[in-house]
Amino acid sequence: MKAIHTQQGVCVTENIMNLIFLSRTSWRDLTVWLKFYIDSKHAEGEDQPFIHSKANELLIKNANIFDSIFGSQSVEEFSTYSLHFLNYAGLLIDAQIAGDLSSVEAYLGKLYENSERTASFLASMNPYWDEDVWREHLHQFNQKLVSQSEAILQGEFGENAEVFGKKLNLSTIIGDYYAQGLLEYLMYSSRITV
Q1: DSSP per residue over 140-157, as a string?
Q2: This protein's superkingdom (predicted)?
């Protein structure tokens, strides 16, 4: 076993570091695929099913990382929250495009409710994650997704690019928080061999 980093007598293997890196970058990847998805929905592109499936693949990959750390009992709940996010986001964008304000409000509520449950779930899985921090991160992520879609709807493509840049920065912050929490969990919960 090749040790990459040692802290307080704990060796972190190359495989673990790769897992942590993948978990960190998955948030940025999701942001990029969501950008494609939002753009495609507004353009009524025929590539929507392909882009949706790529985002789903990314969520499944993320669930597999989650499974390898927290076990299969928790991965089903994690996957459910992830897939609900993608579905509610798609329905919300469809409602925005249709100008159906009552559906926009309903799906926005579902998106935020899902974020609340996700934040609570993640904090319950890992003592190195805080529910309030997750709630704030996920709410900001939702806000930026809605803002991106609204900017396209209003023809404000410069604003769309600006929001996307902010969302990329946020995804880096979220990815760092996610990965740091996983690393601390592995290091201090005796999941890594000494």
Answers
A1: HHHHHHHHHHHHHHTT-H
A2: Bacteria
Pure H helices in 44-156: 48-70, 72-98, 101-125, 131-153
Q: Do 31 and 171 form a contact (C-beta atoms < 8 A)?
A: yes
74, 66 Cβ separation under 8 angstroms: yes
pLDDT digits (tens, 9 = 90+) for 73-108: 788 899 999 999 999 999 999 999 999 999 999 999
Give tens-digit pLDDT for 35-88. 999 999 999 888 888 998 898 888 888 888 888 888 887 888 999 999 999 999
Q: pTM of the full predicted structure? A: 0.87
